[in-house]
Task: structure prediction
Amino acid sequence: MNLASQRAGWSRLPLRAAAFVVLTCVAILGVSGWREWAAREAVLKGAETEMANVARSLTQHAEDSLDLLDSGVVGVVSRLEMDGADATTIGKLRNLLDARKKAMERVHSLAIIDDQGNWLTSPGTIATTLSDDAFFRHHQLSPKREAFVGHPVKSLVDGEWVVTLSRRFNKPDGSFGGVVLAAIGSRYLSHFYEQFEIGRNSSVTLMYGDGLIIARNPNNEKFVGRNVGDTPLFRDPSLQRPSGAYHFKSPLDGAERVSFFKRSGRYPLVLLATVDKEELLAPWRAAAISRMLYVIALVMLIAIIGAVLVRQLQRGQRMAAALVEKEAHFRLLAEGSSDMVTRIGLDERLRYVSPSSNRVVGWRPNQLIGTDALAGIHPEDRPQVQAIVDALKRGDMEEARITYRNGHRQQTEIWLESTMRVTRRDNGSVDGVVAISRDITEQKKLETRLETLAIEDSLTGLANRRRFDERLKEEWARAYRDRSSLGLVMIDVDHFKAYNDEYGHPAGDACLRVVAKSIAAEVQRVGDLAARYGGEEFAMLLPNTDAAGCARIGERIRSAVHDACLVHATNPAGPCVTVSVGGAACRPSAERTAGTGSLVEAADRALYAAKAAGRDRLMMSGEIMNLLPKASGQ
Result:
């Protein structure tokens, strides 16, 4: 009976072995297919992230451009309402508008229109050269004074599409006096977008809120003026959010696109940054096909080995040969990979290095084998990598991924991303680590560039208003925890509008850079922050600084600007450019009901007090505790 059972078991053994081989092959193919699909999704997700960064940056650029136009328009409106729209004033303003147009590449045209719709500026500026005047009717019928961004229109002079920004000005009796108009050209925006190299067949499109294309790169002349308002981006309710990823087939060129859209929160603009899906997935597809071919070859090898094992279960030699062949195949995979594959022993020496090391780090495999695996890592990053390697050697983790700086034979430094995984002996003990490393230096450079664009003022090189607000909150919280003081100095260029009117916008920009340089020179500590607060106003955040310290630094800044001796003939405070400075300091831990706005308001009050006292001077708010009840309305 036992013999019969044994024979039955032997007769079923090939079927069981065959079933095991089939299940193994299916599992390998399934896992490989899933991993390739996950890699594809990772590529798409990475593209969405990159497009999101580009869309946010370019939306900010569009908003900043309109803000720049608006600042000029506001100045002209103020002059018209103060001096009137007589021929003398118009003549002066015409010269000013011409100078500003020549100084700023992004300005397509500037104009003044009276209450009857007559163009008061010369035909060379804009004249009756637009295909639509809805902006004039808007201001004629609406008493509102805010800026109006009109529907894109086509210039009848040069055929260029432009976006208009206009403001109403009133007569002395408060009635409608006319319109001041400024416009940005489509070609400028398209040319600016050429700076962002996000793909060979990528595109950046700026549209009006109803879907009319304002500017596009590439092929701006071909697509500008088209209306895509019937696409899902403007019709689908699920896409009517401020921003998000958007996969679609372009109605313009028929290409499948991976994109990210960003709607401006301040103007009726939509920015769409896209990359061609086929182009994006081409490297992944080529690599996936190559890897799947290897997997299919491996599956076929396993099937062959399984068939042999079914027939010859007693032949250990055949099994050993199959295992050797399998190991050789995996070695072939490693040496054929574009990533650098290394094997690290328990003594942290390199036991194996793939040929791609010559491309990644500039060293041939025979030059690296036997050397310290962590020798080329940047000293600041080495402790972190060392800790991960130690944890893998102890068996605390099976796999880890880390990014770090590494030396290159021909370059100063590169960034590597390494995936590390432990290898084990037959008894389960760890015998080393396998690392797969790839060069991500260009990706890091792009990330650094985008981060800089997000926090730095492009004109002065100081931190921008967004960065200032973030750091103010951080330093307030830190000062509250540490029970330390926090100081703030506000600086404003005296009569800067008069300076701009007298010497022109380029000179005004140069003046702001000189002032910014004087302020930046006072940044002596890591925690200090100099920022452009807005227009000609600057701010300096001084952690762990009391009122006396703020006063010393504020006075040095005022003196440095004065000593720069920038000629300012129309400055009542003196013959050169001067600044008014206001300072305030407090201990957040002693002001539990106050917030960051209280400190800003106190410094701002001190600044206006300096202006009222004759400018070119420093005023301190005193102990901010006396000002906080006023700031909170008590």
Q: What stands out?
A: The mean pLDDT is 82. Residues 2-83 form the longest helix (82 residues). The longest strand covers residues 414-424. The chain has 18 helices and 20 strands.
